[in-house]
Amino acid sequence: MTDRHNIAAVPDGAPLPAPSDVTAGDLGRVIAALGALAPELTAPVVTEELRLRQYERAANLAQWIATAAEDLADGLRGHMQRSGGDR
């Protein structure tokens, strides 16, 4: 992953890199970031505005994760087909 795709350096709420241009390690880091939201979401509501931002961040990460996982799976599936089967 290059610096321009340094997911750990993406500020909360900032756009993530294109899901089609990431590695399995990148996917894992974003899944961990989504998991890190859990304590915030289970804590009492501080303000409705903050809770709304938390929901939006969770949705953004979840959508990105789904797209990235599908792209990685498609890429691996294609590689497996080109190389002659399951490995």
Produce the secondary structure layout.
Blueprint (H helix, E strand, L loop, with lengths): L23 H13 L1 H5 L5 H36 L4
Helix pairs in contact: 1-3
Q: Would you mind describing this structure in some detail?
A:
- This protein is an all-alpha fold and 87 residues long.
- Helix content is 62%, strand content 0%.
- It is built from 3 helices and no strands.
- 6% of the residues are buried.
- The model has no long low-confidence stretch (mean pLDDT 85).
> Average pLDDT across residues?
85
Tally of strands: 0
Going by helix content, strand content and strand pairing, the class is mainly alpha
Morphology:
elongated
Key traits:
single chain, 87 residues, mainly alpha, 3 helices
Summary of the model, kept short:
With 87 residues, the chain is mainly α.
